[in-house]
Amino acid sequence: MTEVTLHEDPRSGNCYKIKLTAALLGLPLATRQYDIIAGETRTPDFLERVNPNGRIPVLQIGNRFLPESNAACWYLASGSALIPQDSFDQADMLRWMFFEQYSHEPNIATMRFWLHFIGSAQLSPQQKAQMMAKRIAGCEALSLMDGHLAGHDWFVGDSVSLADIALFAYTHVADEGGFGLGDYPAVERWIERVSQLPDFIPMG
Ligand SMILES: N[C@@H](CCC(=O)N[C@@H](CS)C(=O)NCC(=O)O)C(=O)O
Fold first, then answer.
1. Among residues of the chain, what percentage have pLDDT more than 90?
2. Staple 23 to which of 40, 125, 127, 201, CB 3.0 to 4.6 Å?
3. End residue of a domain, out of 58, 77, 96
4. In which element (H, E) is residue 113 found?
5. Nearest CA to ligand 1 atom 16
6. Is residue 137 located within the same domain as residue 38?
7. 51 Cα to the center of ligand 1, angstroms
8. Cβ within 8 Å of residue 125, ≥6 positions away
9. In CATH, what number is assigned to the domain containing residue 174?
């Protein structure tokens, strides 16, 4: 069987999505760790050999390298119950995964990285200037999720899919970016639901 290795930093929610997908499916996953704050994904060797975009996660399948968290989740989950069979539901799942990458992660994950790992005193003037816009956009993303989850247990269909995994990763630690979840009760109930899944693993 081809060995699958995740190039990761365990503090990253994008990496956690892939580990959670593998855990829920009972798939073995080796890991190779990097410190992104120390710039370990920006070395000439990493850029040439692993990902020219200088970021983790990267899923290594044999001698092929697949960057982008949601693409890696799709690769692992292909043919499993984490991807709905109905073609509308499949596209709807991708809708939420694209929403996660455009409207959610750039706001909620970036705020978490700046406040929890870098620290507000160390931020550049450019980063400080973006904080208000990211806070507003992050709250809008959480409101949209809360509205959907008020009427549904899962983002798509009647069971957990990759849409839930992609959105769970940074939502459940949103408080570390200054986003309290008390105003989003349906999101809080959904976080509990995901955490109770058989074979669930915590982030780290
Ligand atoms: N769209 C990418 C985002 C990847 C990304 O932003 N990775 C961050 C950690 S979560 C990273 O490697 N940062 C280090 C750097 O940019 O030097 C994904 O979903 O995988």
1. 100
2. 201
3. 77
4. none
5. 55
6. no
7. 11
8. none
9. 1.20.1050.10
